[in-house]
Specification:
The chain has helices spanning about 1-15, 20-35, 40-60, 70-90, 95-125, 130-160, 165-190, 195-225, 230-265. By secondary structure, it is mainly α.
Length: about 270
Amino acid sequence: MLRLIVLFIFKANYPLKSSFLFYLCVRLAFEKCLTRKAGTPLKDIIYYLNYMKNNLFDRFTPNENKFFPLLREMADVIYTAADYMVECVQVKTHEEAVESFRKIKEEERRGDKLQSKIFEELNNTFITPFDREDINDLSLMLDDVTDFINSSAKRITLYKPKKMPESAIKLAELVRESADCLRKAIAELIILKKKPEVIREYCSELAVIEHKADDVYEHFLIDLFDHEKDPFEVIKLKDILHELERATDAAESVGKIIKTIIVKYA
């Protein structure tokens, strides 16, 4: 009877996601009481249940605040870098392009540090809010989006194209649009079970943006090969815009990883 009372009290006050952890905490608390002295009062058992909660259970509870803020920061890095990229494709001088690239590079390095931090936390955390493989894949792909933005800006400063085409501005704006979707989707992950349909909508929007970017890039290539006579400019511009198009591909891949997480946990 005493065991049943203890189980009821503990289950009511400290609901656990894991039945194994629930059993373990109750078992250890109960045995702690029995070894202390015979006929332990119920209040002493409750005392030890509190002890187990604060000292054992908290160690195994997923510290969700550890991962979600880091992922949100990575999404913010992508948006900031994309915003600078829109600026970079519209500058008038090489010096302005170099300055825009410098700001993007700072964000890219910040993103690398955040991804490394997530990797370290995955190695030091016993239980994670999602599969650690999914969290790692998500952070890696978020980092790839920033890398492609940085790569495109770097090529602008290295190649010094004579003039950036209108398609470059359109692609940069689509990258920023996809970055905004990523930021919103990542922000909703913490309440995944409550609003999975909202996150799915953001992921679907990422796919739509990627298709638009494909169309812009394909039409740019047609126009480039039809009208640009300088073969060096053809190579430069094709390479610069290709990196922007790859950024939207990576953003869509982030959406696919998030959809996988939704299937598992929503």
